[in-house]
Write a structure and sequence with these properties.
With about 100 residues, this protein is α+β, with helices and mostly antiparallel strands. Helices cover about 35% and strands about 20% of the residues.
């Protein structure tokens, strides 16, 4: 199912061949995912190798009633849960 245009919420990116997540994000989902994929085309970008994986998976949840600071808090909670489970943040999370 494609991401509905203009949808705002939380998303996660996953490489099915690896344990853990590649990235957790928030905002306008379609716009943010396109920005991540653009990084894959720039070999000099620190996140390029993570977003250049051909079979990445993405899941998301939308909620237009969440305020920006609430989405940021939820994003941070998801990153923290990943750290608790895997001992590190998602692989591309803090690379640029």
């Amino acid at each position: 199912m494609p991401v509905p245009a203009g949808s705002v919420g939380l998303y996660r990116v996953r490489d099915p061949s690896q344990a853990g997540l590649v990235y957790v994000g928030q905002g306008q989902i379609r716009t943010r995912l396109r920005a991540h994929l653009a990084k894959a085309a720039r070999p000099d970008h620190p996140q390029a190798r993570w977003f250049a994986v051909p079979d990445l998976e993405c899941s998301w949840t939308t909620n237009d009633s969440w305020l920006g600071h609430q989405r940021l808090e939820l994003e941070n909670d998801l990153i923290a849960a990943h750290v608790l489970e895997h001992g590190a943040p998602p692989s591309a999370q803090f690379l640029g």
